[in-house]
Write a structure and sequence with these properties.
31% of the residues lie in helices and 20% in strands. It contains 4 helices and 9 strands. The strands form 4 sheets. The protein has a 3-stranded antiparallel sheet with strand order 2-1-9, with no helix packed on it. Strands 3-6 form a two-stranded antiparallel ribbon. It has a two-stranded antiparallel ribbon with strand order 4-5. Strand 4 (106-108) and strand 5 form a beta hairpin.
Length: 148
């Protein structure tokens, strides 16, 4: 939102009234698309091709995979409903170097992370998890020797 000409262009598009300047800006963007790098986010209309692309990129990384499995209370109806409607998988495999995206807004150590924010995995650490009075050590992630 700091690019005022881009914001103006978006507002014109919303009203379906593009100025000649905005049309020229759009034509220039189509004629000269930026180079796509390995960290470029690709958008997919369906989950399956996105999952295949993510798996392909993950397998390209040389680091050992680590798997994290959600610890949900299977017996609570609310937990079951949330899990069924959640876009995050119940088991997540990561490697150092993997590109990841936030799926919700969250504040961590005073830093505001937002839905859609991307980053790269730089390492793993074990932390205590739980709530006050119910602290337990997070299980160490499983390491696999296969390409999974």
């Amino acid at each position: 939102q700091s690019d005022s000409s881009f914001v103006a262009l978006l507002n014109e598009m919303r009203r379906a009234r593009l100025t000649p300047f905005s049309v020229a800006l759009l034509r220039g963007a189509v004629a000269n698309p930026p180079a796509l790098g390995p960290s470029t986010t690709k958008l997919f209309a369906h989950n399956e091709p996105a999952d295949r692309e993510n798996e392909r990129r993950l397998l390209e990384l040389q680091a050992a995979p680590r798997e994290y499995v959600a610890l949900d209370d299977e017996n609570k109806p609310l937990a079951r409903t949330l899990r069924e409607n959640c876009i995050a998988p119940t088991a997540l495999q990561l490697r150092v170097g993997a590109r990841v995206m936030m799926l919700k807004n969250k504040e961590v150590d005073g830093i505001h992370l937002f839905n859609g924010m991307c980053g790269d995995v730089i390492g793993f650490e074990v932390r205590a998890v739980g709530t006050a009075g119910n602290i337990r050590r997070a299980p160490r992630p499983q390491q696999r020797s296969s390409g999974l």
